[in-house]
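Hi, here's the filled form for the chain we discussed.

Project: internal
Contact: R.S.
Residues: 125
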Amino acid sequence: MPPQKILKYCEDATVILHSDNDRVDPRVLEKLPFEQWKSLQLVRREVQFSRDNYKHYDWRASFSDDSGHLLSLKVTDPKIEERLNGCIEIGSDCILTISLAAPWSPPNSSQPERCYKLIAGVIEL
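And the returned structure, exactly as it came back:
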């Protein structure tokens, strides 16, 4: 399918996947009515790709939601990671498939569980 035909499935997103940052508290998801709950979302954004500051072998995609909140999410799309690792430039106008990971907290930590948002897929326009 040509990328332009996918645009009709993109959402205008003031809030991307239930919060204005890179994670969601699982308790928030548990309280949502079933019809409002989602774990995937397609959005069109102007994106910048960069190496992760902490895990230098990972890539991050930075963009803003419709409210202006800046998000920087881990890229897990293997084709895009391969291109970025090969120094092949990715255009900034992209459709992003954003997904929620399963609840997680750091081992041996008192921090609460959270569901991180990930870039599961990137379609260049």
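Let me know if anything looks off before we file it.
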